[in-house]
Design brief:
Low-confidence stretches: none
Structural class: mainly alpha
Largest sheet: 2 strands, antiparallel
Order of helices and strands: HHHHHEE
Shape: elongated
Mean pLDDT: 86
Helix content: 40-55%
Number of strands: 2
Amino acid sequence: MNQAVEQYMRTLTYSDQQTESAPTPSPSVKDVKTLDVQITELMASLPRHLRDRPWTMAELVQRLSGKYRARPHGQQVGQALLRLGWRKERRWERGYDGARVWLQP
């Protein structure tokens, strides 16, 4: 009986060593273009009447791809827009109702 327990303990120790030495999988990171490039390409692909209008953050986020998730975070998009020279503004006209919009340079 003692021999069986010792054998069982050895197999447990061996399996523990195997799981500790196994490499852990890296987090899933998609190979996507940077947000700066995505925004530039998006604006270049649109006709002038669509491109030269105020954009809300929600509209932009829906058209871009994220690195870790399907869509990027609004903060990351905002930082990219600022790097590209865009400016943000709050619109109080009819139809906007105080919405924050982004304007191209």
